[in-house]
Amino acid sequence: MESSKQLHKALLNIWFGLISEYSKMKAFVISLVRSTERRREIKKQLDNAGIVFEFFDAIDSSTPNFKYSERRAPKQTKLRFGYQLLESELACFASHLCLWGKCVELNEPILIFEDSFQLNTSFIELYSSFNELVKKYPLIKLCSLFPKKFTTLENINEAISIVSYKRRTCGTQSYLLTPHAANKLMQGAMPFLEPVDHYIEKSWRHGVSVCSFKPNIVERSDIVSTIGSSRKNKKGLQFWHKIIIESFRTYELTRAKFENLTFIIARKRK
């Protein structure tokens, strides 16, 4: 009788373990194949946290004519923003685009990391709830580098909320993504006009409203990412060009405010 109870308990533990694993979202880390030391550090961090993940081989900007490099639009980028994207920024954008395609192919939500992240304790606590959260919010940033004013959408617990920032916060260290949102991001990513983290937060470009955890549940690590760079060169701009850049900046700020307001009103009506 006792052995029968023990067997029943063991089977239940196995069952609940399977349910727990199934409920956890697939995780991918964008990383260059040649960044072996970085990969070792990432594996150690995620293994210690009990996170099952896969490395997603980043597109290497050192490779001539790398995938999607033809999507660059240097003249448009220069006119609108006063700089041109670096090869590493183009390759970083292309890497994210490939992983969006993977999300659509899998037809299930995924968790995306770049190779410059650091988990905090809140991430571990909330990890198992990600699949439920993306049913309401198709794209959720886990890390916002420059938090701005925000509107609270939902309080997850006493310390963590889902918010909508009113202005761009930058960074793609980690985010949750549904196949529907991934498909929209893919459709809007033609051509590559700005860094991928800027593009993601411009919902009028692709039709996906971006939400964020506040405070961050993933932080940017002290180590600089090997898949991108934020260096911009705006030297030697003429006065007329500066006027165009400032006009376009004002246009984008206005669009951002309008999109944010529209999203908040729509959420309140639900």
Question: Overview of this structure, please?
Answer:
It is a single chain. This protein has 270 residues and is an alpha/beta fold. It has one domain (26-269): Spore Coat Polysaccharide Biosynthesis Protein SpsA, Chain A (Alpha-Beta Complex). Helix content is 46%, strand content 16%. The protein contains 10 helices and 10 strands. The protein has helices at 2-23, 36-48, 74-81, 87-106, 121-126, 130-133, 179-188, 196-200, 203-206, 239-269; strands at 26-31, 53-57, 110-113, 117-119, 139-141, 150-155, 161-165, 174-177, 211-214, 218-220. An 8-stranded mixed sheet has the order 2-1-3-8-5-9-7-6, with helices on both faces. The chain has a two-stranded antiparallel sheet with strand order 4-10. α4 (87-106) packs antiparallel against α7. The longest helix has 31 residues, at 239-269. It is globular, with a radius of gyration of 20 Å. The model is unreliable at 8-22 (pLDDT under 50).
Care to give the gist of this entry?
The protein contains ten helices and ten strands. It starts with a helix and ends with a helix. Helix 4 runs antiparallel to helix 7.
